[in-house]
Structure formats: C-alpha cells, structure tokens
TrEMBL record:
Residues 418-440, 641-666 are annotated as: Disordered. Residues 418-427 have a biased composition (Low complexity). InterPro entries: Peptidase_S8/S53_dom_sf (IPR036852). It comes from Bradyrhizobium yuanmingense. Residues 428-440 have a biased composition (Pro residues). This is Subtilase family protein.
Amino acid sequence: MAEELPRCFDPYLRYAIASEFKNFDFFDAQESKLFLFVELKHAGLAGDFVRAMSRDIFGAEFGTASPKSRHLTMRAYKAAIEQESFRAWNDNVSRVELSLPLKPTVIKKGVPRVRSASATAPTSLLIGVIDDGCPFAAAQFCKLTAGVATGTRVLGIWDQNEDPARAPIPVGPNVFGEKPFDFNYGLEFFRESVPGMIGLDDWIQLYKRANTIDEDGCYADAGFKTLNHQRSHGAHVMDVLAGRIPPSARIVRRDPPSWNPGDSLTDPASAADIVFVQFPESCLRDATGVWLKGYVADGIEYIMSFVDSRITNVVINVSYGPTTGPHDGTAPLEEKLRELVTYYDGTPGNPKLDIFLSAGNTYLSEGHVRFVRQSMADPDHVEWTWRLPPDNTVLCFAEVWMKKNHSDNVVVTLTSPGGCSSSSTTGPAPPGPPPPPPAVPALPPYTGAYAPVDWGDNRVWLLAVEPTIAGAGMVPEHGNWKIKVEGIEAGSEVHAYVARTDPNMNMRTGAKRSYFVDARWETARAAEAGCKYAGGEFDKTGSLVSRLGTLNGIGTDSVAGVHVAGGYILSAPKRKSPYSSAGRARTGPLPRRVGPDYALFCDESDALQGVRAGGNRSGAVFRLVGTSAAAPQLARLVANGVSLTAHDPPTSPPDEKRGDGDLYPP
C-alpha cells in the first residue's frame, strides 16, 4: 500500500498507516480523528480542498488560518487518508504531516465570539506563550491599576487537551471554560466574564481568602494538571518573558540581586496582556516533538485572534522544537512561521509579529551525523552506530537526509545488534502468522528502514525501532544498531538526526535517550581527543558525529521576524552554554541560518547553571537549565524596544555558536 499513497504524505504518516496506528494507545479507527498539518500547492486551492474533503465519511474539520495562507490544520477520520481521498490529496496538497491524533468529546463547542472585544482597553503589546503551565493567579502576573491588583494579565488561555474528563465546570448558572467555536477541541478561558461563562478574574475571586488567593484550590478545581506541581516549564518561560521582575534583577553578580520590579514605561512586557496556549498532555508525554506541528500552528492562530487595531506589536514565544527535519528552512512549520511574520509585518492595519524560538539543547547529545563524499577516491558508503537503551518505553526514530537530485542510487540499511537487517528497498516486515521460532533471528514488525520520501528538494529515509522494554510478542534488541548509507555520489552530503526521546519536565514516561556513535573514531581518535579541552568542550575533530548543525528543527530558516536564541555563561564571556545547539543549517532554496541570532544568559557559571524565575505559585522560583530560558529573554528585549547591541561579539559574526554575540539580560 505504501507505493500507492499520495506523494504528499510525510514519513511519520506513512509509518502510522503501515503500522496500523499500533503505537497510538488511544487511537480508535471509528471515533478518533487524525490531526493533520496540511501545506497546499498554493493558497488558491484551499476552497477546492475543503470541498473535496466535505464528505461525511471523512468528518473533516479545519482550523482557522490567516488570509492567503497555504497552510491548514485538519482533523478527520481515518477514511480521509484512505483510497477514496487520494485524488484530493494529489490534486491540492504539496505536503501533509501527522500530529498526534485526538479523540473528540461530546462537549458542544461555544458560540462564536470576538476575542478582541473587551470592557477594558488592551495593552498595545500582546504577549503569546505556547507551553506547559500557566499560573494565571500568581502575583507576578497581576494586572495593576494605580498600584492595586485588579485581576490577572492573562487575557485568555486555550487548553488544547481533548479529554472527556476535561469539561466546562459549572459555576451556578454559568460555566468556567468552553470549547473554542473555531478550533473545536480543548477548552478556552477568557479573563472577563461573558454571558453564560465566568472569566479568569471572577474564578480567582472565588478563591480569595482575606488578602490572599488559595492558588492550590484555584488551579486544582480548574483542572489544570500541570499546576499541581510546584514548577512548570511554562510558568518559568512566562515569568522570564512577562513577569513583573525582569531576569536582570534576579542575577547575583558583584552585588546581591535587586529584585526590583520592571517599570511599565521602560519594560512594557512587565505589564502587557498575555495569551497562553497549553500543549496537550498526550503530546508532552512524547518528547520527540514530531507530533506537535499542528498544535503549534493552531496555537499561533489562536493568539492572533485576540488582535484588533489597538494592538500594534505581538510577541510569541514557542517553547518547542524537534531535533529532526530537513534543517534547511523548508520544514512545513517553518514555512508557516515565515508566512505569518510576512503577513503580520507592521504595515497599516496589521500588527508587527515576532516569533521566538530556542536554539535547542542538543549540542552534546550526539544526535547528528554529517558525512561528505569529497571525491571519487572516497568510499561511496558510510556506516555508524545508533545506540538504543534497554527497557525504553517509547518509539525511537532517526532520519537520514540528502538532496533528491544526488540520491537516486542510495540505499539505507538498519542492522540490529544480532545481525538482522532491514533495507530501504524492501522496508520493515509487516506482522505475519506464524511468528518465527525463537532460534530464527528476525526483526519485530514495523522496525527497520522505510522507503525514501521526496520532501521538497530533499529525500528522507525514516528509521524506526519499536520500544525495547519487554512485552508481548517480539521486542527489538537494545544495544548497538548499525546504520549504513550506500550509493553516495561524489560531492554529496549525508545528514542524519535522532528524534529526541528524553522526557519533558514533570513527565514520567520511562523514555530514554538514544544517540549516534562513530565507532571507528572512538577506537582511533577518542583517547587523543579526550586530552584536548578548549572553550568548555572536548575535541571532536574527525568524527562523523557532529555538534554543529544541531539547531532547533524549526529554527533553521533565516527570515526577519523569526528569532532564535542560544545561551552563554554569564561569568565566562564569549563562551556559550555547553548544551546550546549550534548551526549551520543545511543548504537549501532559502537563506540558511548560520547559527542563533544572539546568545542570552543561560548559566551564571559552570557550577551554577540555569536561569532563576517563577514557578507555579506566587513567590516560588527555580532554575531552568536550557535555551528555553534564552528565547523569552530575547523576546522581552524586542518587546521592550531595546536596541540589540551585542557585547563580546565573535571574531567574524555571525558564527555557528553565538550568532552576532552575547546580549545582556533584560
């Protein structure tokens, strides 16, 4: 069936179809809906595609999209990717990617509303955060009027969780929360009460005790599970970007921290309205990020639905980024971001939109291989190890990328530690009765190298290994798997990326990290390289495993309006944080990003890592380690209109590690 699928289907959608959605625990072919991120051949085909998918058996619903957009989010039954739909896909769509399916609930969607309508004037700056955990009742997000707290600065929350247990909460004759009328999944909450629905301000008042707020009860009764913890990724990011106390006031330098709050005149981010989009728990439990694209696209469109003529600037921080993808600026979500910042360019009638991404934390994670066959004298093949941990509870994916016009004869082979191989010419074996006897070596079903897929001017091979934890049926071996790429033309370049699997904050999944190893380099060069330490890192010269080229998979397009932030160590100028990912992007049809735009403070010293900012309760702070703390700092600087002048710039800016140099924290 794989050969008959529309060419626009992405490798993960093909994998899901081939494996009959085996690894989607909650997927029900009759009730669940696939969540698809669709890129049309051109914007004018949107109407044709929607009409072609309007049949009842498809059950297709489409999210809101900006004018003249080539990109749509679509939720539909499994029939929408079966034979009867193929013509619609082939005629109208250039690429489609699978996000994590969802199971619709019977909750009725809310009535159409104008989200920008408000009894109080909005701030001219709107801040959007797409993350996990929004402590809307915390003191750092209070709206102050003449120095008195009058409610929350959180203008709206969209919780994207689609769960039968996550229903609007009755409050007398009203409810708290409703299903968005235009996206039709999850629940949204407004700051102000509207007929039939109480707002965040009135909900907070229900938990007021004398001069304090019972934040524990406020969040627990509202059903925000992430806020049951003392800390969350979203709370920290939101505080760095828009909290009352800016990051610079919390830093220990020669003097103690000042803890002085920001002034709304010089630090408008400290008083700006906020719209928060909460990622679904099911997506956060899968750390690869390959399933989140549609949710991110919808989240940005949701934030923009709060904009009216009174809002002139919108700053959105997206704490998300896969380690996989083409890394040349052409991933569909990168194209969507480019489309958005090009449309919302600050011209009359349009706000200025800036989107901020973290560079990533994979510089030392051994998840990227780069090989170039320099000349005909070099071998036409390359081989390396993919090390998979034991008792891993999640799927492991790797991708091999090459330019399409130089890879017609390329074959990718995945070999298990026991010597069983799967070639991209045949693909993984489907399940078939009876299972082989224990003495006969074989790979489990759906584990192996899949046939290549043409993706723009690239060609990609997906490699998949099922969870290695013991279970019913055949279980893949853990240990050293071999990846071999053969038939490489002279002058051609091979890149491979491992999909991240280590768990997100507050998630207990049993997932473990897999990574690449260059066995020949380890044998011949590793001991010598271990004696060479400079700039905070050991030498890796000559290894197939490359630390460069590890930028966030949706942060490789060099377009004004999309900003990428790396990290540096405050006490060691000109030294990036050891984990902070670096460029360059692969060569592609668009201007490629050399590295992050700038580096922002992520660690106070080698010993004191992380940035201190707020947790899920008023007054609580913790340190978050990673470039997720850098992106909101850069966003705050831009939101405040600060001139971005780097101190300690690199010798030849921009460079792969620190871009144009280090910026002081806001």
